[in-house]
Amino acid sequence: MTQNIQKIKNTMNNIIVENGFYIENCTLNELHQKIMDFRHVVQPLCQEKLCKLMAEISASICDHYDAGIDTYCSKSDGLSAFDMGKSMFFDDKTMALLNDSVVEWKMSLLIYPIKTKILGVVHSSRGDWVTKWMDQDFVHPYSYPDKESSKEQKRLDWYSLFKHFDGNSLLNGFVVELTDPRVEDIYAKDIVPYMPSFEDRANSVAESDIISCFGKDQQNPQSFEEFLAWTQSEEGKKEVEKVKEGVRDKLKPELTIEDITRKLNNE
Predict the structure, then answer these.
(1) At 263, phi and psi to the nearest 5?
(2) Could you give the CA distance from residue 147 to residue 144 in angstroms, rounded to a whole number?
(3) What is the number of other CB atoms lying within 10 angstroms of the CB of residue 59?
(4) Model pTM?
(5) To bridge 46 with a disulfide, which of 109, 150, 179, 190 should be the other Cys (CB 3.0-4.6 Å)?
(6) How far is CA 14 from CA 17, 61, 160, in A?
(7) What are the two backbone dihedrals, phi and then psi, of residue 156, each rounded to the nearest 5 degrees?
(8) Quick check: 243 and 209 in contact, CB under 8 A?
(9) From 14-18, 67-71, 213-217, the region with the lowest mean pLDDT
(10) pLDDT tens per residue, range 212-241
(11) Three-state SS at 232
């Protein structure tokens, strides 16, 4: 709940509401139908982002295996790169990390019925998704302050919401999740079109190889930060480029569905 209202602040007489809106003459049943209709718009976008991420993970596993880097080899246990990548999404810790930082797939509404209209705040780090919601005919922008912030009614409407907010719960209000990343609905064929480019794949594996070499060198007195700084020096860049060239020779120019679904031996 706190995440959904983090863009709302109320300090005495200072009220700030970003991505606020209102809907007029709408029953909750009608609102439910409008929300369900919008989910058909945004859920495919959510799944597309998930496919792109799964393509990056599957490609990384496949390439690390082909390059002989132990990041995934010892954990393959006869699974395919796709299966290994997919299993990560059923790990609670992994999903918590992805939801908090890496993936911008979350979108939700804070809904608050008030008087003759419904107040709401749309929450998403994806500005284009927010725009899609706001551009619907029945949605009226209602942020505060804005160029119409002189209207006292708008301030009073939002203040009536804040009166009930205690930092953890919102009486008479509720949150609606608009997106639901469904890993179980994604198959190997779905992620192939989103495979990263050969150059991006080579760079990713080379970086892992360089970092793993640093970790294995117990005699290296450098801190990891110093090591990363060295990779940006003229000498470091030449060494990094050598590693990249070696990696490029080991990777397939293009990954196919056969590559990401083949079983990887952990020998």
Answers:
(1) -75, 135
(2) 9
(3) 27
(4) 0.73
(5) 179
(6) 10, 50, 13
(7) -65, -40
(8) yes
(9) 213-217
(10) 766 555 455 567 777 778 778 888 888 888
(11) coil
